[in-house]
Fold UDP-glucose 6-dehydrogenase.
Amino acid sequence: MKISVIGSGYVGSVTAACFAEAGHEIICVDIDLKKTEQINAGIPPIYEEGLGELLQKYAGKRLIATTDYEFAVNETDISFICVGTPSAEDGSIDLSIVRAAAASIGAALAKKEGYHVVVVKSTVVPETTEKFVLPVLEEASGKTAGKNFGVAMNPEFLREGKAVQDFMHPDKIVVGAIDRRSGDLVSELYRTFECEITRTSPATAEMIKYVNNSLLATKISFANEIGNICKKLGIDTYEVMEAVGKDFRISPKFLNSGAGFGGSCFPKDVKALIGKAKAIGYSPVLLESVIAVNERQPLLMTEILQRKIGNPAGKKIAVLGLAFKNETDDIRESRAIPVIAELLRLGARVSAYDPMATENMKRIFPTIEYLDKASDALKDADACLVMTEWDEFRNLDSEFQNMKGKIVIDGRRIIKAKNVDYEGLCW
Ligand code: UDX
């Protein structure tokens, strides 16, 4: 089939490349000419394992990129909206980019003959597809949804670093459509995928995405809450969770306590669901607690630090790990950010190291010291805070011996070194 993919960011570029791999013909649309040129040259706009290879394979063949909406909509059967949905000031979802994309698709639909389906893949709060995107499409096209064109919602569940693998081998595919014709066409795209397709309404599909992420975030905040209690009782929370996770109704995944969750999805999506709940007159106390635990968790690290060394003003504190998780250079909502901000507020000197994310963090904290090796960041430091679960930190041992303080506060239960003054965040 012929698909246009609107937006060449993280979700859009992975969706385009993976649908090409599944045998479809793809036209990527982006308002950024540079991005389209990059894609046409086979260069991925973001780093994601396996994405470069797929673009190399298909760019200029069954995958092309353009800034021309009219051409893309006219040449294809389906358009996927894969643009960003950032948080507004109050945490609720900002739909201005989705609106602009829908208006441009609508304007192109006005000139197109024949049926076309518009699919929202961007993460949007329940009711957005039917009550927000659909009317924009109708207004801009002068046509009627369900008659002249179809509308559907098809959420993604991709993990950063594993997005291509997750797209090609999904646990679930959810297609929420306004009518059978739209749903059938979207489902047809996934015919070769070995995965059952769940057919729902658009609002249910939107909700499934938010509940998925909110439940995973809840598991982590729950594990962190239990970890904090266990630590006070002298009980090892990892031993507790290992046994608890053996219950097949619970699963052992996402019960690792530590500095909390970051990334582009969990914090944003939980906050957007909170915003939506409040907008319809419900006070979501559990979801608000999930965020509250996550915001408190990194600051427990600096509390431990102060208990151990007193006032950190003027002291050198090494921060190991800046990315929001391992195997990525993404620092969005990284738990290292509130920790570094607090260290600076307290007047500490920060020496930071991350194998991939240094350049990104420089934009947020341009004045702290960045080192190319963990051992250099640790040299002469009074204490060290471990923020990201990078594998290479597991083997650190002698590197700690060059510290002045040899105090290691571990936010990810990853340090095994023996001859240091070690304290885990919640164990
Ligand atoms: C997540 C979802 O997994 C994915 O399905 C969704 O589409 C987007 O959001 P991602 O943001 O890439 O993916 O990261 P993920 O691997 O899920 O980790 C999120 C955060 O939780 C990281 O900061 C990680 O360090 C933290 N985490 C994870 C924990 O603190 N404890 C755990 O047990 C697991």
Notes: The pocket of uridine-5'-diphosphate-xylopyranose is lined by residues 157-160, 213, 216, 220, 254-256, 258, 260-263, 265-266, 324-325, 389 (CB under 6 Å). The chain has two domains: 2-200, 234-427. The chain is about 45% helix and 15% strand.
